[in-house]
Amino acid sequence: MVSMAKTTKKANPFYLTKEWRQKRQEILERDHYECQECKRQGKVTTRHDQVLEVDHILELQDRPDLAMEDDNLQTLCKRHHNIKHGRYFKFRNKPKKPISPLVNEEWFGN
């Protein structure tokens, strides 16, 4: 289970800078607004399908010297970004249980 501290942690101020916003836009354009992991899997996920995020391949906290390096940045859909960072929760995508025909027959007195 993910701790609340991890999910409520404040964003790094770096991501609010003008320089990062410009670099983020450059990377989205370079990657044609497509998730690069989806693309590696033979799928196409664009900004019209999901929210796209620009990911540091080598983490910012580990390699701040690569924060603005194009070769260390990639566009990922929210799903793949969350999977990469261990924030993917299986229970969010649970299919709904079908209603049993027996329940419907009992309800209507058939």
From TrEMBL:
GO terms for molecular function: endonuclease activity; hydrolase activity; nucleic acid binding; zinc ion binding. This is Putative HNH nuclease YajD. Coiled coil: none annotated. Pfam families: HNH (PF01844). InterPro entries: HNH (IPR002711), HNH_nuc (IPR003615). It comes from Tetragenococcus halophilus. The keyword Hydrolase applies. Residues 22-82 form the HNH nuclease domain. GO terms for cellular component: cytosol. Belongs to the HNH nuclease family. Keywords: Endonuclease, Hydrolase, Nuclease.
